Amino acid sequence: MSKDDLKEKCTSVMSKKRRHDEDVDALHGLTQTFPQVIKTFSHGDLHMITEYYKPFLTYVIEHDIMRILENLVTKHILTTDEAKSFKAKEESEGQAAVEVFISDLMKMDSIVLVRLWEALAEEISRFPSPNLSKILMEVTERGPELLTGIEASLKSPPIDAHIKDLRDLHRVGVLQPTRPLEDQGSHGYPHTTAMGSESGYTELMVNDGYIRTYSERYHELVKIGNDDAEPVEKRTNEKCDQVWMKQLFRRSPGSDTTPHIVVVSGVAGIGKTTIVQKIMLDWARGTQYQRFAFVFLFKFREFNLLDMETDRQMSLTRLIGRHYKYLGDPKLREILQKPESLLFIFDGLDEYKHKLDFKQEQLCTNPDDPFPVHILVTSLVSQALLKGCSVLITSRPTALEMLDMQRVDYFAEILGFFPEQRLIYFKKFFGDTDLGTEAFRYVEDNTTVYTMCFNPSYCWMICSALKSHFMTPKELRGTTPRTVTEVFVMFIHNILSNYKQEAEDQRGILVKLGKMAYYGVENRTLVFYDKFEMSTFGLQLVLSSPFLKEILERESSLDHTTYTFKHLTLQEFMAACSFYLDPSGDIEELFVKMDTCKDGRFVIFTQFLVGLTRPSVLKTLGGILGELERKTEKRVLEWVKKKAEKILWSTDANDDQLIVCQWLYETRNENLIREVIGKDLKLDFSHRGLSHLECDLMNSVIGCCGELEELDLSYTLLTPEFFRRLAPCLICCRSINLTDYAVSSECCSALSSILSDENSRLTELKLFEDPLEYSGVAKLCEGLRSTNCKLEKLRLCYCFFTSECCSVLSSVLSSPHSRLTELWLDYNDLEVSEVDQLCEGLKSKNCKIKKLSLVQCDLTPGCLTALSSVLSSPHSQMTELDLSANRSSDSGVTELCEGLKSENCKLETLSLSGSLASECCPALCSVLSCPHASLTKLDLSSNKLEDLGVNQLCEGLRSENCKLEKLSLVSCHLPSGCCSYLSSALSAPHSRLTELQLDYNDLQDSGVDQLCERLRSENCKLQKLRLGSCSLTSGCCSALSLVLSAPHSHLTELALNNNELEDSGVDQLCVGLRNENCKLQKLG
């Protein structure tokens, strides 16, 4: 990052701070005014306002329950004991307890509600929820107008008596097919509860306008680790507010408009359909959504059946009548006359075979006109049809690209269970607090399984899988599942065991089920119809088998019965099982499909296919189903090894590398992992980072090998928790790259612990553009001084050094245990005093530094004096020094050269590019001709040496003491006359130059001609010559061709790029290239 970029960043930060200060002032004024206004409302009005905003208030109270309770105790609304009692209830029941708490306060006197609102207003400075501030503003400024709006939003629309009778009939019709949302006992375990209940649906968290990118929604189970619970919860607290189901079509605080088009997104099994069922149920009961006279629910999967009919087009009136046969045409047309009182719900966009085309020129405007159903849906969303009606669409994130999100008024994403909700779920499921807590603590310690618990469906499956284990006495328990595959195996094993006496030929049924599941995975089919897939795969005759109801969900509608797996991932697991249950499956054909598929449909299927190779897994399933196909196991392991090696050793597949690590983790096959990973693997996770789940995967896989060549985590914002979590993997790495704000000073303690670990293999650490400052560098140096530290190469470039940093680094260099041999401190501004401190360590007899880079450190001549003393120190081992792009000036170089001429100096490579002039050349010449000097490589690029400087330099190059082999004079303002001096140096009998770089100098053809005269000399040893961008034409090519064909020429590499040689020049070069004496291997 340049200084201008840094200045721009600082300006941005200051601007944000000013805006923050303005916001704080505005909130302060609001909190002063609000308490006066809230006291003016009557008890009834206060009750109405509190009830209306209860969902938002619940969210705020739950976020900082202790402070609010303390506030209410201070205001004498609660006693200390009452506050403690409620806090205990909130810890065990969560959000539900907060709702009850607010409802209890609403039953008390007005002063109690006033004090509650005052406490919430005071809370806003600590928890600046965007919705809370808007609510307080609305209540303060809108007063009576707000009350009128609330009353209007809660009232049912006025309708005629005969329409009212029809609405009541519709309510009854909705109630009958609505799936019961009551808790049911789990088969075989009466004390446990199957949590698919009315009270168990997940509330929504909405991030206004936030829609996941395609990469984020690629596959839900793959990506769940990327949004760990804690970061998501933090993001939600900062940017989102909890949205309850009843709020979806309510005006948001601070908004003047009511949403009409709402989209609810969520991964498979998160609870979208349950929410839809709850909306229908509450509307039919008259408890919610009463602003709508009629609510119509349609499932996209049912629309797929219309493709099989002769007439695929139908009107909206016919579509409604088809689903709700008791709504006749005349009355239905009258209902549709008031679109503002209608809600259309379309569930499961991801299950629809057609795309919604919002660019369609011809939309439907009349409910009686026939159109394809996808155009009817598009017309409703676009408000071309029944303008003013409300529409709710649910979808998995993978199908959101079908929607024109600009037409959506409100987008909500179901994020699932946060950690507290997961524990509550476990307690409720097991029906025994202690048992549920024990199971939860086990799962919490297993990141792979715990991360899945964000999803209520996964949570139910995990609880179902673990219930038999944790309900068994501890001394009789077997091994608990560690991988996703093991969880699903235990889930299926429990089902089969529970129904063993009630079903015949379980294996045969599972083979058929697995083949249908695989058909669904391959063809992206989630819904299976009784007269089609179920019949094709021979499942119609065995649907009465009791255990299938634990795996499949059945739904009857229209003229068909449909089946889906309890969860999409369960379908993928059953599909993988089919290849182990039935030897007739063509495993080779499967590998070809998996290798060629690019859209991710086989990702989770592959994970299960690989996970099932584990012997203990096969034994568990084989114990109840009979021996499984071992040939499949062998071939899958062979395929995994080949595929994994190809992906892991690729240079541009970091996401795929993580998928492979997941496969290897699922196998838990240590021999396979060691063969695939080896010891020289480099993994690149730059620009993406690693989640908690992925950290655990890496720890397991890399820890199995004990060694990794390199791990690149650059361009990723990392935390101390990340380093602590990934420590087992980082300890195994030989090189770690943490470039560009990846590490803060707070992370350095964790990084220091890794360096000082006795098992650490870390020999190279790269930190570039990381804001370490003194505190970070000091912590890092603690680890560097450890006797266990094996670090040899350290980059601390652009790390915002302060004056004390060089002092602590010096203590590391002089430490007897230090193994550092290479140190880069580029792009840190260092003063003379700081360089002096650093040099004290460099002169220590314990210092082993051989390479030091101080590029663009704003060094002055005084700094080079200190470095000169290091070079002449008897203990110095330095062989390479880079001082490019500094303010060292010619006088500073003269001081440096005194050290270079010392008999103690061992320096072989010196870089001084930038900021020098010809005045430095006499001093450099004296170094080159010094008998003690050991320089073999000198870089003087981008210095204004000109004719005079090169002439002086060449005196040293001609010396018999000169040992220089590589010289760079790129962009040194050299005219053509310089070439005669260089030519004489090249042909000197003592010359050792093998590489000369002269790019970006105005040498012209005349200069190259002079150079070529001596390039043909038998004394010339030059092998590499660069003449790029030297203003050359075809006129120099004849001379160059003679060099190539000269018998004494050693040239193997010649660069002539960015010159105007033309075809004639190239033709002349080719004459030399064809000569038998030509040794050129590379021409550029």
UniProtKB/TrEMBL annotation:
GO molecular function, a single term: ATP binding
Compartment(s) of residence: Inflammasome
Segments traversing the membrane: none
Signal peptide span: none
Gene Ontology biological-process annotations: inflammatory response; innate immune response
Family membership noted in the UniProt record: Belongs to the NLRP family.
Boundaries of every NACHT domain copy: 260-399
Keywords (A to Z) from UniProt: ATP-binding, Cytoplasm, Inflammasome, Inflammatory response, Nucleotide-binding, Repeat, Ubl conjugation
Protein name per Swiss-Prot or TrEMBL: NACHT, LRR and PYD domains-containing protein 3-like
Lineage of producing organism: Eukaryota, Metazoa, Chordata, Craniata, Vertebrata
Pfam families: LRR_6 (PF13516), NACHT (PF05729), NLRC4_HD2 (PF17776), WHD_NOD2 (PF17779)
Gene Ontology CC, one term: cytosol
UniProt cross-references to InterPro entries, sorted A to Z: Leu-rich_rpt, LRR_dom_sf, NACHT_NTPase, NLRP_HD2, NLRP_innate_immun_reg, NOD1/2_WH, P-loop_NTPase
Gene giving rise to this polypeptide: LOC114666971
Native source organism of the sequence: Erpetoichthys calabaricus
